[in-house]
Amino acid sequence: MRKHFLFLLLAAIAVNSIHSQTRGNRVGYIDMEYILQNVNSYNESNLLLEEKAEKWKQEIEAKKLEINKVKEALTAEKPLLTKTLIEERETEITFLENELLDLQQKRFGPNGLLMSQKALLVKPIQDQVFTAVQDIAEAKKYDFIFDKSSDLTMLFADKRFDISDQVLRVINRTEKREQLSKKELAAEQEKESKEDAIADNPNLAERQKVLDERKAARDKILADRKLAQEQKKKDYEERRQQILDDRAAKKNGTVSGTTKTEVQKVATDDSPSETELARQKATDAKAKAQEERNKIIEDRKKALEERRQQILNDRAAKSNSPVSETAKKAGSTNTVKTEVEKTVNEDAPSEAEVAKQKAVDAKAKALEDRNKIIEDRKKALEERRLKIIQQRDSIKSAREEKLKQ
Fold it and tell me: Most exposed of 36, 84, 128, 385 (fewest Cβ within 10 Å)?
């Protein structure tokens, strides 16, 4: 039969070559096994069939174990049984073995349920493949299309003549069209025409391959970013839960070092750098020194004012006449004023020191404003953090309520 088929094939090739001398023969092939492995409906049905076959195997194994138990019982009781009983037991074992053999043939034999259901499973796919091959052959002017997985021996087949992927596209398109609306069908047809153009043009196919690789790389980067964000979110949730637990423990009188560290970390997120802190300390020291100096000057002025008042009181007590008292008072007043002015001028800072003091005061004020801004930022950050925690707690509570419902 095989030789006859090969003879007819060679004869058809020879006849076709005579009729098409001006045109080269177009030959292609398909791999039926590859097509079946990539058809989703076949894979799903085949998986169900394999599960059923596994149950049949377990059933057969259970019957084998039952027969073995009967044989072991007969071997153990054989010395105590009569010849008639032994023959009855052996007949029963033979019947069970024949029944098991029939069950195996019925389930897994050449004409068994497994083979027949596999044939029924493959038949629709084979019909679709046959129809797709006919359409492709007519559209692209193929002269011969072979099946690589059939009984026909193919010692060598170039991959560029393999049209299995084209057949798969036709089958998948047919399945999709049955489930699409008119608008979706038009979009799918446009996509199909683009895929056919890419398949027919090697340059477009190579370009599409590069684009697909770039898209896969982008998808991978996005997936990695998403995983990193999820990990950060998870770490934040753990950290927040730890802070809440430590706060609850603090109410009971125990505080962990982790909470202190976390709180300090949150509080110092917007804090100034070390250089700024050093500048701030130096400015604070200058301001403090200037403040002490101003305090000393004020104390001296106060002491001079007290001394002047004391002198006036003493002179007023010594004087008896109004005229002399007034003159003396005026003279003493001028004297005291002179002394006060002299003392003030002696301890008063020079113009350079006053300018320097103003610059220091300006720096101190700027630093004070900056510290205020930092404190405001800390306060805003703390309010924002508490708001986020409240929002997440409310979302978590809503989810828990939904789950309960």
Answer: 84
Cα separation, 138 vs 132, in Å, equals: 10
Which pLDDT value is given to residue 263? 45
pLDDT band at residue 261 under the 50/70/90 scheme: low
Q: What is the pLDDT of residues 348-372, one digit of tens each?
A: 556 777 777 788 788 888 888 888 8
CA dist 189 and 156 (Å) reads 35
Range with the lowest mean pLDDT among 17-26, 257-266, 334-343? 257-266
Cα separation of the two ends of the chain: 71
Residues 336, 329: Cα–Cα separation, whole Å? 10
User: CB atoms < 10 A from the CB of 68, how many?
Assistant: 11
**Whether residue 258 has pLDDT greater than 50:** no
Q: Left (φ > 0), alpha (ψ -120 to 50) or beta: where does 342 sit?
A: alpha
Q: Which amino acid is located at 311 in the chain?
A: I
Enter the pTM of the model. Answer: 0.38
pLDDT for the residue 339? 55
Print burial letters for 20-35: b (CB count within 10 Å at least 16), e (below 16): eeeeeeeebbbbbeeb
252 vs 261: CA distance, rounded Å: 19
- Size of the chain in residues: 405
Computed on alpha carbons and rounded to an integer, the radius of gyration of the chain in Å comes to: 51
CA distance 361 to 287: 7
Residue 255 is predicted with a pLDDT of 45
Cβ within 8 Å of residue 144, ≥6 positions away: 13, 25, 26, 27, 28
Average pLDDT of the residues of the chain: 76
